[in-house]
Amino acid sequence: MTGLAPEFDPLRSAWPVWAASDARTRRRLNVLAPFDREPLAQVDVADERHVNDALFTAFTLFRGRSRWPSADERLAIIDGFVALIDEWADRLAAGASHECGQPLWMSHEEIALIREDAATARAALTALDGATAAGTLVFIADHVRPLAGPARVLLTALAAGAPVIVAAHPNAPLSALRLVEFMERAGLRYGWAQALVIPEADTLRALALDARVGTLIYHGDSDQGWAWRAALGPGTGALLLHAGSPPLIVASDADQQLALDVALGAGFARAAHDRSAWRRVFVPQHDAADFAAALGARALELRRGDPAEPDTDVGVHNDPGARDALRVFRDELLAGDARRAPADGDGSVLFDPGTSAAAPLGRLIVVHPYDDLEAACHRANGLPFATHAGLIGAARADVVAEWLDAPTLLVDQAALLHRWQPSAALRRSALGPVDLAGRVRALTVARSLRGTQPAASLA
After folding, report:
1. Residues contacting 98, CB < 8 A, separation 6+
2. Angle between helices 89-100 and 104-126 (to 10 degrees)
């Protein structure tokens, strides 16, 4: 695509390579709904020629500082972007659920997160005080959070004033493409936000590791993220975010009904589509077996069906590889000491596996019994991740927050994870700031002049 699309059509059935490139496409990708395999759209696949053209455009725009969009122009684009999000909210949410399989209520949560991020981006831009973009950005999108993930990066790039290339995930590319089109419709100049769909690993690697990339942004699998970081050349920065099986602690005096609600709604129902969902639940020994059985029974009652329908509670997985990894992980635990509480054919509640491990993305909750709360917290710290933890039982919040490594403790109702995104992360969970405002600061540089006064005469 060498110019803007002929008309604004976020629901088009055929998508071009959304980049400043004259190269003809050699292949198209059929995007299918994971629920019923219904064809949703065809997307032109980008190859090395499109990657090079997109990088050339982004880097050229970055170098042309005299033509950068002003702060006032970028503020107006943010406002126009939010207006389009509001106008298209229902269709965006339904489209996201169709392509990634998450239930509609999760897609609407993402729409709400975009609105909140837009307000944060606006404030961050206003606070820059003359700082300008430090380089071009490349974002490798995950196959989960198809709306909130790309939107957060697009808003971050816009606030920082940086050209950005979004590598939309082949399993769920349509939402990212729509959001890039929204940016252009809102007034962003052509080429400042480009989107490529790149199924081939070598081509994606050529994009991510090019010397013209100022910062690589990746959210998703931890091993993959740190592999990207290790492969980057000198001078290229990275911003990474990986949640990594956060723990939910149930105190001995906790409201058991609330604990079940949280484990079910913010754990089991989310776990195939949200890396922040609870996958490890630590429950007092005397309650743990009953808790696991009750959680499994309630999981059976969740409504299943078309994820784009409003009455569906649980969606469907859209990544066969992750689904297979989950099956292997579950079978390994069951081959050991774990016991299974019936849940459904595509998910599980496991009880007392004797080990604490990071579960792959998917509907699986592991219930760990404990005798001592402090020991349970230390066991919860056993994985090399720390973004957030949950606690049911506010009376123990102070001591639990002291024992856990996670920088954020979500207590009682907050653990339901409604419209929540990490604001800090430690250890293998992240590299660089994870909050939007912090990332805007990290992606900009304050430029200054020194020695501008006339030199003193030596006469």
Report:
1. 33, 35, 38, 40, 307, 308
2. 120
- pLDDT of residue 319 exceeding 90, the answer is no
Instruction: Note the pLDDT tens digit of each residue in 320-352.
Output: 888 888 889 888 888 888 888 866 555 689 998
Ramachandran angles phi, psi of 101, nearest 5°:
85, 0
Task: Give the DSSP letter of residue 3.
Answer: S
Can you give 214-253 as a three-state secondary structure string? CEEEEECCHHHHHHHHHHCCCCCEEEEECCCCCEEEECCC
Neighbours of 22 (CB within 10 A): 9
Structure tokens at 453: 């006064």
Q: pLDDT of 355-382, one tens digit each?
A: 878 888 888 999 999 999 999 999 999 9
Residue range 126-142: mean pLDDT, rounded:
96
Angle between helices 174-185 and 71-87 (to 10 degrees): 130
d(C-alpha 40, C-alpha 95), whole Å: 9
Alpha helices in 88-173 (DSSP H): 89-100, 104-126, 148-160
Nearest to 280 by CA among 292, 294, 293, 298: 292
Q: Of 136, 140, 135, 134, give the one whose Cα is nearest residue 208.
A: 140
Q: Does the structure show a pLDDT above 50 at 459?
A: no
Give the dihedral sign, CA 93/94/96/101: positive
What's the whole-model pTM score? 0.94
Output Rg (C-alpha) for the chain, integer angstroms. Answer: 23
Q: In the beta sheet, which residues pair with residue 15? A: 43
